[in-house]
Amino acid sequence: MGKIKSILCYTWAIMIIPIALAIIFSSPVIYSIVFGDEGVKVTNWISGGKIMHVINRNDYSIYLHKPVFDGFFYERKSGYIQIDFISQTNLPRNIEEVIDYNLDKKPDFNFSLNTQSNLYHFDTINNKVKHLTKEEVYILENRRTIRVNIEK
Amino acid sequence: MQETLKLPSITRSLLLIIPFLILCSFSLMTNLSKTDTIHNIATFITGFFFIIIFFFIVHTRKTDKYRTILFITFALTFPLGFIFRLYETRGHFMILFFEDMLQNKAEFCIIGITQNIIPLVIRNEIFFPIEAKRVVFTLIGAIVIGLTIGRGFCSWICFFGGWEECFSRITKKAKIKKINFKFRLLPFAVLFATALLSAAFFTSIYCFWLCPFKTVSEFVEISTLLIAIQTIIFLAFFIGLVIILPILTKKRTQCLLLCPFGAFMSFFHKINPFEVRINKDICTDCQQCIKACQVLALTPETLKDGKTNISCTRCAKCIDECPNGAISYHIHGTKLFVKPELKRMLFLYPAMFASIFISAGVIHQFIYRIILLISTGSLVH
Fold first, then answer.
1. Contact criterion met (CB < 8 Å) for A43 and B126
2. Predicted structure pTM score
3. Averaged in consecutive runs of 10 residues, what is the pLDDT profile of chain A (152 residues)?
């Protein structure tokens, strides 16, 4: 019995490299079996959530994302909505928008931004819209992104 | 009794490296380019370096001595190759901007796995700005390494641990000699705490707040007070745990006190074929091995049992340091202290192969940049 166990253990030690290689090269298959067609995604708290609606202006487009309230087991009461202002070339000097983030055809907040100085003005209309801090106005090339804190 | 080991002849050593040569060629062949000569030269030099190191490990039986050279080389060469590769792909060095995060363009390191297992299993989500599939492939890779060489990852593959190993070897004697053995449990606490906090806050807590190795890879642009605090914390950890404490203690203190990935790999201690055993018939209880062990895997209690604890990284430092040759690699389930050289070789093949498969790219990138600098005068394409 001891000898058989010993042989099996030596075999295991010898075969470990081919087994490891077989598993590594099967990773894409393992991935599709375990996670199916939907696969794995980056959390909405990092990605900003799916784009829900696009509004085209002359110089730029506004991308409204789906509000993010994700919690680990249940949705949270407070979250945020991401809005991108993206231009193919250069953003205009001033952006002034009345945003309806939940698409209920009622304005939710006013947002204006000077794209040169990046000074902004933010007014809430809907009481579910909470605030927009300086850290949540992201300055990117030909693009500004804001993450506005909202409640359910 | 332990079998007496004589140094092998050069011919025998050359024959013993043939299996590694085949594995090494297989690994490097997949990395050849049809158009880039510099890339191929770097590949050849990298392969040659690994083969030379393996030859010396086999021929001299100084496993730890030559492993350390390889290990420190990973750590020291990593930043140059990494930073310039980042520059080529993202257009800037080291700093991770919000734009990169939105496009999932962060670089993922294996330590981040520990922060993403819970959301991956429960929500099919990851909490790191990277192409999500890569996290799954990295997790599969980590499990495979665990099943192959256990926590051997931490001494044979990790391209960060070499920094501590390097600093721990600067002084001849430790200034701080006594470290409470219970401290080795800290990484397990860090693993559980950060994994749970990551799940609660939807972010990779260890990666963004604690990881000291961001100092030599990439870090988030300091645009808010919060990020400034995170930066101060990880820089302090780098200076304290990677530079100062390793010099004072001659231990790998980041691995010993903080690294959650090391703790994660410890769970594979029993479910891989290899371990390190102490022959109590030969051991004189001089405790040189306890002093030598850099991760507190040997204690007076484990020495009595003739085993290392689950923190063992299979680095072979205790094996090399033991004046009586009482410590050797062992294969679970086989007769103790029989055919120690065969067992050592059977461990060395997967350890070195995993090393070349995962970390050769680090040395390759470094050599590639140096040749590029010499031939074109620039470190980037």
1. yes
2. 0.90
3. 91 95 94 89 92 94 95 91 94 94 93 94 94 89 93 92
